[in-house]
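Put briefly, the fold is written as integer tokens. One such record reads:
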Amino acid sequence: MRLRRPAEARHWHKPAFSAAVAIGLPDLALLALDRMDLVLYTSAGAMCALYGHNKPYAARARTVAWVILGMIASLAVGLVSSSFLDSTVLLVLIASALAAVHKMMCDAVRIGPPGNLIITFISASAFFVPQRPGDIPVHLLLAVAGGAVAWLVCMAPWLVRPEGPQRIATARALEAAAGLLRAAPDAAVGPRHATAAAVNAAWQTIFLVPARSAAKYAARARLERLLVRAESALAVADVPAEEHAAEAERFAGWARDLRRGRPLPEVTLDAGQTAELAGIAADQEGTALDLRRPSPDHPRGFRAVLRQLRPGSPLLPLGARVLIGCTLAGWASMAIGSEHPYWAVVTAASVFQANTTLSWQRAVQRALGNLLGLLLFTALLPVIHTGHLAMVLLVILFQIGAEAWIPRNYWLGSVCVTPMALLLTSFGNAMPAGVLVRDRWVDTVVGGIIGLVCCVLVTNRRATDRIEAAMGHVAAAREAAAAVLAADRPDDLEAGWARDRLAAALVELREAVEVASGEWWQRALPAERVALAERDGHRTLARLVRHLSAPALAA
């Protein structure tokens, strides 16, 4: 129940106001046309404005477009099923299977918040909306229109801050590096992991930024130099922190400048750091550029997704959990007599996290948040009954509140999500408030309990296997790095690629350990081997950084 610090949720306003604008514009248009029964369909596309805010704009354009296509395809499955199937049992089963696909795909592509939950909520609702086959094309076109608005809203900040996402990613790396420099050498394991992960994530963001013009090249080159300086902290973390206080403050100051949109600082690198940035790009005049590029074996596109979903993948047990848990939750809701079994499906889908421990936490958080949200909805009934305009304005306010509070803690955001979901349901099919509140609470309890039972019964036995595989990747990356360092004249480009592979392998290992640590009924975790692999891996990573950086941090 503990709330995170506000600093950890400082960018909540970007998805919050994007979604509010994307939802509000179509809703107000429907209000003017007196067709509020169509809100679900425009909202399906508009909700896609919540995605992609951590990506550079070129990548964001593709990501949001794919999310919109996925949303429309899922909506189409729900509408077609609602039109041609009369069996609620089958509708729950198909909706649950679709929820399992959403979970595995969103985890495979690492889409980030809000993950699979929004797509599952909209598509599951569509399964239980009365539908005629002839209306489906129009309803899908409305979803496309809402998606077009969402895409434009997500891309609009490019006109004001075209470098915003990559600046934020670089700022996070600098802040993590500053924390590492301030940490005591004997307590630097956590900060070292955090810095390696933040730097690796920043490089992956930078790699998505095109540099087709001289201006774009210059801006990206400055960010790359800042990242090289941030990465250099990994090479000196074993030196007493007091010797790096000035450098840590310098990193923190650069991070503040990046976040506030100030001009990028000019960072001077030594010959070794500059050589490491050697690339193959060229500007309009054919001059060689010093931009970094990802390693040739870095997985991209569909190949990376298919690798995540291959046989034996740890995502498959999660998909099985979602399928079984959502199906049983929906059927149990039907047996109790609820008129909204898809709420139980969505609750179960939201409960399933990376492991049993996190799923338990999410179930408790959702139950508390929904209860408080139902009390808020009941208190606002006099306002809601004044008409559709008040309902639209409340939906917009709740959307902003949900995105503002969810980063602090999920239960707090659910206080806004619950009345917003009830309002969206009420536009097309008005029901007594008492029935809505009762069904929502019953479905929340049913979905949460059955979801937790399925977490226990469908355990992820592959979580430990993932640790073994991750340690193998770390060992292979260390051997490749050692071979590069052992060469008489190590190639800087090869050394940079070796560092990228090793950093990514260490991040994957830490993530695998954290997932397996919260999963029950596992083989004993190889804690000593993991600690040894991480220690040796970070030492080798530090050697690579020293090779590619100055011996001492320059002013």
Summary: The radius of gyration is 25 Å. DSSP finds 22 helices and no strands in the chain.
